[in-house]
Every structure is written in C-alpha cells, then in structure tokens.
Amino acid sequence: MAKIKMKKKSTSTDMTAMCDVAFLLLTFFILTATAKVPEALPVDMPSSVAQTKLPDTDLAIITIGKGADGKSKVFFDIKGREIRKRTLEGMGAKLGVTFSEDDKTKFALMDDFGVPLANLKQIIGMKAADRTKANQPGIPMDSLDNQLKDWLLVSRRAAIDIDNKELQIAIKGDAKEEYPQIRKIMDILQDQKINSFNLVTGTRGKDF
Question: Are 88 and 107 in contact (CB under 8 A)?
Fold first, then answer.
C-alpha cells in the first residue's frame, strides 16, 4: 500500500509587523522622554514612602547640601516664569542691583542658583551646562546678610500679586546634612510666619 506523504509547512514567522511595532514604541518613548537636568547642587535625599507630587508653579524650593569643597551651601529655585521675573525685579529694587529685560527673560528660564545677588548677573549670562559646573558659593543667610530671607519674602509677594496665591515652600536637603543648618532655614520660615512646608524626599518601597 502506498504511503501518503504529508506536505511540510514552513515554520518561519514573518516578523515584519513585530519590528514595526517595536520601532514605533521606541520612537514614542524617545520623543516623550524628558532628559534629566544636571543639578547645580546634587543632594542625596532621605527616602520616604510618601508620593505627594509638588506643583509645577507657585512653588519655592530651598536646597541645602555640601558642595565640592565640603561646605554647606543653600540654593534657591522658584517655579513659575512670571513669578521668577517679578521676584528678580523686586530683589534688584530691594538691594540696589539693576537687571535688564534680557536678564529677566534668561532668569525666568533658569533652574536653582546659589550666589549673592551681586554675582547673579554672571550666572545668568552663562550657558546652562556651564552654570551647573560653576562654583556657586551659596545664598547668604547669616545675621548680617540674610538674602535667603529676602528671596522668600519677595517671591511670596510676587506670587500673591500675579496669581493671588500663597507661595508653597519646599526644603530639599541632603540626608547627611547637619541639623543646625536645617534649623537656620526653619527659623527663617518661622520669622515669616510660614508654619507649613514640604520636605522633598526620594521614593522607597513600603515595608511589609
């Protein structure tokens, strides 16, 4: 009896469609991803399970940590371009430093900074990459020259004038920072009757 030969079918799979999907996904993630901006004062934040997101505007962030020289430094940042411009105008008027319209526009696009107001023009004139590498000494906050107090006060007034909102405050501190330095910042907040503020932390998984 003759044997019936079974026709062999090809085992190959057309991967063209899968490759198209993979490239589409790759293109999507590349276009929507946000590059991490280098920090002028990198800090190792303490961990926390809290996941409250800070607002993108009407927010002032005080960053405290140790620079490359091992000394504690304080940097300041304001979220909201119009508030930043109005704050720079107010600080210039308060401390007698003149800023051009170009200075104000560039300052509105900057991130945190850590120099006395008299040296801020030099930082504003730098490129973003050079600004993060610059050796910024930190914002003065001693009894004779407490510019951090002035930045807070003027920025809070700017937020009320522009958005009729109270400026939220956040402290971003290094986990190894000494308590007396943090205490100085909290005393400045207390002097301005700021009793509610956020602490910026890193994320940590919950313990079960």
Answer: yes
Outline where 5-61 has alpha helix (H).
16-32
**Closest to 200 in 3D by CA, of 62, 78, 57:** 62
Instruction: Please state, in angstroms and as integers, the Cα–Cα distance from residue 71 to each residue in 41, 42, 74, 178, following that order.
Output: 12, 13, 10, 11
Say if strands 47-48 and 168-173 run parallel, antiparallel, or are unpaired.
unpaired
Q: Which residue's structure tokens are 């910024």? A: 136
Q: How far is CA 181 from CA 159, 177, 184, 197, in A?
A: 27, 7, 5, 17
**How many whole angstroms from its chain centre is CA 22?**
33
pLDDT 10s digits, 114-150? 999 999 999 999 988 888 888 899 999 988 899 999 9
Residue 107 sits at the vertex; the CA angle it makes with 59 and 56, to the nearest 5 degrees, is: 25
